[in-house]
UniProtKB/TrEMBL annotation:
GO CC annotation, single: nucleus
Catalysed reactions listed for this entry: L-lysyl(4)-[histone H3] + 3 S-adenosyl-L-methionine = N(6),N(6),N(6)-trimethyl-L-lysyl(4)-[histone H3] + 3 S-adenosyl-L-homocysteine + 3 H(+)
Name listed for the protein in its UniProt record: [histone H3]-lysine(4) N-trimethyltransferase
Segments forming domain MYND-type: 52-90
Length: 433
């Protein structure tokens, strides 16, 4: 696909956003606009053994690569299909042993370079597509990101230099920047990270905080489905970021990661901000200064927790969550997005610790606000229902588990399609429960 040639989709130049896609006919909620394979992709090292490296099939009886003994495949066909890129890592993993530790970005860039080299038969226009339709913003990268990219580039040279040639440093920086701006995280039904890929076709789609489509994954392939009814001429729009947070936070994330601010209707009206920043109702309302100070504390807590997850034990993290909730809830409402954020983190810590009752207690606090604050067909909501359904069933709460499972499925039938393997798995589970 080049933005043209798929029934009902065309490429166009948006006056405000540059390149984009729009529909030339009506699409209805849940309808597939298009599906496309990745230009290049990589399975997360943490998921090796659980998924096939080539087709991303999830099953228990995978065959291991006889040489490196770290890559797993469904069968010989998948192993042969992956060899053109796996051979970059296979010998290196054997040579480096436990010291083999390139970043996922380094691994993906290595595969992109290998793909470009081995696909010389592609037409010139297709070759240009990867560069022209994936934004680089290398010149906008701040010092911290530049340091990270240079570390990734150093890892690329260290672990792959014996097997491939590299472009000059400027071109390599541009390629890493492209991957940073345009790479997609491939996720499972609970939004757990499986791998990373680049889709030049999907990279044509612009952002909106009121998206018309959603991107999900079937194996390594991306699928774009409508989450709103669309009429001919409507632009195809996805969200690049988590939509839970208020306007200023969303635009801060967009500027930080994608170097632009959003001017969609929601960003202009900020219609949900008051609800997202809701303050606790009290006989004597909190003073404006106290609310401002608490929101500042809440934002800082949200940012800091990302770093703390690397440094603290699960017990320490849970204690931090509980202390933060006690502090916030003196001023902020239980449905305030920052309170929700901490509850979500606490739920995750409890799951990790095996405290199912604690995980349910935190998770149940999220359900109603998530359903209200997220769009109608949100993966964040369906994944929460899925997590809770599995917790309920593990705790022998069959009725609650089935109810949550059905609610997850009702969303996923739209976002993933009724024939998606994840949906079929859930249907099978529902029949057996």
């Amino acid at each position: 696909m080049t933005g043209v040639g798929i029934d009902g989709i065309e490429r166009f130049q948006s006056p405000d956003k540059g390149r984009g896609l729009r529909v030339t006919r009506a699409f209805h909620v849940g309808e597939l606009l298009f599906s496309c394979p990745p230009y290049s992709y990589v399975l997360s090292a943490q998921e090796r053994g659980a998924y096939c490296e080539f087709c991303f099939n999830r099953k228990e009886s995978l065959a291991r690569c006889g040489k490196c003994k770290k890559a797993y495949y469904c069968n010989v066909t998948c192993q042969k299909g992956d060899w053109a890129v796996h051979k970059l890592e296979c010998s290196a993993m054997v040579a480096f042993g436990e010291k083999w530790c390139p970043s996922e970005s380094s691994r993906l860039v290595a595969r992109i370079l290998a793909t470009k080299k081995t696909q010389k038969e592609r037409s010139a226009s297709e070759k240009i597509l990867l560069v022209a339709d994936m934004q680089s913003h290398a010149e906008d990268v701040d010092n911290e990101k530049r340091d990270n990219i240079q570390a990734d580039a150093a890892g690329l040279h260290r672990f792959f230099s014996k097997h491939m040639d590299f472009p000059d440093s400027k071109e390599l920086l541009s390629l890493f920047s492209q991957v940073s701006c345009n790479g997609f995280t491939i996720e499972d039904e609970e939004l757990s990270h499986i791998g990373t890929a680049v889709y030049p076709d999907v990279a044509l789609i612009n952002h909106s905080c009121v998206p018309s489509v959603i991107v999900t994954f079937k194996g390594p392939n991306a699928e774009v489905r409508a989450v709103k009814d669309m009429k001919a001429g409507d632009e195809v729009l996805i969200s690049y970021i988590d939509l839970l947070y208020p306007t200023d936070d969303r635009n801060g994330r967009l500027r930080e990661s994608y170097y632009f601010s959003c001017d969609c209707a929601e960003c202009h009206t900020k219609s949900k901000d008051k609800l997202k920043l809701k303050v606790r109702e009290r006989v004597k309302p909190a003073e404006a200064e106290a609310v401002t100070a608490m929101l500042h504390y809440a934002r800082k807590t949200t940012r800091d927790f990302r770093e703390l997850k690397r440094l603290k034990t699960p017990s320490e993290l849970l204690e931090i969550c509980e202390q933060s909730l006690e502090e916030m809830c003196g001023v902020l409402d239980a449905a305030n997005v920052y309170v929700l954020h901490v509850n979500y983190q606490a739920m995750g810590v409890c799951v990790y610790q095996g405290d199912l009752h604690g995980a349910v207690r935190y998770g149940e606090k999220l359900l109603q606000p998530f359903s209200q604050l997220y769009p109608a067909y949100s993966l964040n909501v369906s994944s929460l229902y899925l997590k809770l359904s599995r917790l309920y069933l593990a705790l022998d709460k069959r009725s609650a588990g089935i109810s949550a499972l059905k609610k997850a499925m009702s969303i996923m039938e739209v976002t993933h399609g009724k024939d998606h393997p994840y949906v079929r798995e859930l249907l099978k589970q529902l029949k057996e429960t």
